Amino acid sequence: MSRRFLILLILSAVSYGSNFWDYPIYILDEAKNAACAMEMEQRGDWIVPTFNGELRTDKPPLHYYFMMAAYKIFGVNPFSARLFSVVMGILTVLILYLFVKRIVDEPTAFYSSLILISSLQMMIQFHLAVPDPYLIFFITMGCLSFYYAYHEGNSIFYYLFYFSIAMAFMAKGPVAIVLPGLSIIIYLIIRREFNIKMFRRIHFWEGSLLFALLVAPWWIAISLNTNGEWLYGFLFDHNLNRFASTMEGHRSIPGLALVIVFAALLPLSVFLPQAVIMTWRDRIKSPFLVYCLIICIVFIVFFSISRTILPSYPAPCIPFGAAVLGYFINQILVTNEKIKRSMISGAFLLVLSLALPIVGYLVLKNDPLIADLKNLSFYLTILFVGAMVGFTFLVRKELLKAVYSYLGSYIITGVVLLYMVMPQLMSKNPVSLSLPSILASSKPVVSYKQTNAAFTFSLKRPIRNIGSPDELQILLNTNPHLILLTRETHLQGLEKFGFKVVRKWKDLFENPTTVILEN
User: Fold this and answer.
1) Angle between helices 106-118 and 318-335 (to 10 degrees)
2) The pTM of the whole model exceeds 0.90
3) H or E segment and range at residue 256
């Protein structure tokens, strides 16, 4: 084990593993995914995913399996739900380092992995109990395996590629085939090597069989168990409709995917224009960088066309963007080449780093639920200090010290945010605030029409949902005393059943208002 490998192992464990157990499962996607795995584990069901007892068609089951395994060992809690997301983050860093070291050189691999570790977006991503960490890891391993197999002629890595894409498919579906596949096709077309012989060279038919053997059993089982309902809901509602129309308010606008990728690669993304120019200049001697750039472009263009987007959607291309930047940094250090527009890039980062704590302060101040925590935004001034130190080194033409200053300040900021800020922010969510009184009551808990998804995970059981006044009346005939969870938009008409509002809070980071009622 080399010294650099050990450094990356420790830093990635510190960065991605910081305090992931110490704040509640609350964010909508986390709550639904963690609760779905909980319900499957409670039933001993490895086939049919459900949330609140109803079929959940959002995602295939790979991440549920990892969560279920953790629940069996450590119990149902945030630690278990997020544990393997953290593991996937650490493995992504290490696999990037090992492959880039073989394909390019060790310094490039080291800088690439450091850039990935310092990404605040990736720190958050690998802290979430969602399928994206699994998708990112397996797409990274799969695409790197393909390139290595193709250029080194090692068939074992082709099979690792097909295995990885199968696992990525089991994490999130068709996107795991479409985007890596399109990237590879474009790369081979550019090399003028996309032909019939190529299919034999990459063991396409054997690999397709391996893919089918890994994927088909669950897809057949879920189709039979749900009479095709899961398959229809997943393919049409959560894939085609997400691409063709805006869902859940996550509207995409032109250029947003590029902004997301740029933000995810901060702080060194300020050098992206120079890095892309260098990649094009060195395209003959360094085809790997062209390959990485193609993957980034494919993801950015695809999610620029898509009508629905979240910051996690383009995330699988971030490791490849980090490799492009890592190569750029190493080449500048090795050749002592003058960095064109470096002062402009450094100055831009300085201004951006100054703006972030101000924006954070205004965001917190304008949310009544967390306005009293507005001063937490000043932890972001660590970024400004790092940017000032880095800019000073840039002026003195000490690039390596500047790079370490930039990356170090982002890693420190991420760790501080996860230990000092996230627990305080998340403790303000309406589920955590209302949970003690709900648990102290002996009354049955039901939801009316719609409520915060995190209640299901927090109560560690499905919550019966009442969909209409008539159904509520029938329930009250047998259970006259209830705790009712709903949203403010559904309050009309409940007063006639004797319900009174006990507490209500606006959902943290969301528009709805959660309401707790008793009769």
Assistant:
1) 130
2) yes
3) helix 256-264
